[in-house]
Amino acid sequence: MQLTQLPRTFCWTKTGMEAGEDLVTIMLRKEWERRLGGGRFLWGIAQVPRGIGGVAASRSKSALALFSPRLTKPRTAGRRQSNVLLWNAWIDATGQVRPLPSYAFVTSSAKLASGKRRENYYALVCSSPNELRFGYNLGLQAENLRHVSSGKRLGAATSTAIVAHQSAPSSDKRYPVALAVSLEAPFYVKLAQPIALKARDLAAVVNATRIGDFEAYVDLVRRLRNSPSIERGCTQDLFDIPTMEICKPLADLSKQAARFVASVVGRQQRPPQLALF
Fold it and tell me: What are phi and psi of 256, to 5 degrees?
C-alpha cells in the first residue's frame, strides 16, 4: 500500500513482543498468511478496538489500519515461549463458534501482564491485494491522536483504537509506521478455542519462516491447526476459500523488513517486536 501522509482517521495499533518472535519473522509470516488467504489475513490484538462500532455502523466496506512498534519495553519481560496459546476459532455475530481458516496462525501469551490467565483475545481482519510493504517514511505522536468516538486523548494502556489525527505541536516521541493495510468487514473478530502451543512447535514455525521454507511452514501450521477436537468444517463466511498465490521468493521483502528494523533500532537502541498473530 502506498502511503505518503497520515490519513485523517484510521485504526492505530501499537504492537509489542509476544512469545519472543522478532519483527522480521513476524512480517514475513504475515505476508505468507496474506498469500494463503487470497489477500486477507488476521492480526491478533489484545483488546476490542475502541470506536470500531462506529465504523461498522457507517456500513463502510473497509478502513485503514496502521501498525507501530511500541517505544517501551513490555511490562513482563522475557515471557517463556512455552506459555503461548494458539487460537483456533472465532465467534460470529450470532454467538456461534466457527473454526478459523486452516492456514491462520494466531498466537498470544497465555497470561496477562498481571499474571492472570488470558481469557479473551481478538483479531483484526486485514486485507491487501498486493505484497505487504514494511516501513514507511512516516511517524506519529500519540498526543496528536484522539479517539473518534469521544474526542479524548489516548490512554497509556490503549493499544488499538479508531483515531483521528490532528496536526499540532508535539514532542520528539514519534512512533514509526511499520505497516499499513485495509480492514474489511467485520473489521475484527473475537477469538475462541485456544490450545497450549508447545515451545518446540513454535520454534519450528519460526525457523521455517526465517529460512524461507514455505512448504514446511504450511505443513507445520496445518498440522498444529488440524486437531480433531478443534477443526469442524470450514469458514466460508469469514474468508471465502481462496486460490493460493504462487509462493514467490521473500528475499526482497526480508531485506525491506530488515532495513526498517535497523532504522528503528537506531532510534531506540533495541529491536522492536510486533505482537503475534
Answer: -60, -45
Q: How far apart are CA 246 and CA 27, in angstroms?
A: 18
Average pLDDT, consecutive stretches of 10 residues, N- to C-terminus, the chain (277 residues): 83 76 79 93 90 65 85 54 86 93 91 90 94 84 86 86 78 80 92 94 92 93 76 52 53 60 52 40
User: Measured between alpha carbons, how far is 75 from 126 in angstroms, rounded to an integer?
Assistant: 27
Report d(CA 76, CA 118) in Å as an integer: 14
Distance of CA 150 to the CA centre of its chain: 25
CA angle, 272 then 266 then 15, to 5°? 20
**C-alpha cell recorded at residue 223:** 498440522
Q: How many CA within 13 A on the CB side of residue 131?
A: 13
* CA 99 to each of CA 40, 87, 96, 110, 225: distance values in angstroms, whole numbers, following the listed order: 16, 9, 10, 20, 10
* pLDDT the model gives residue 139: 82
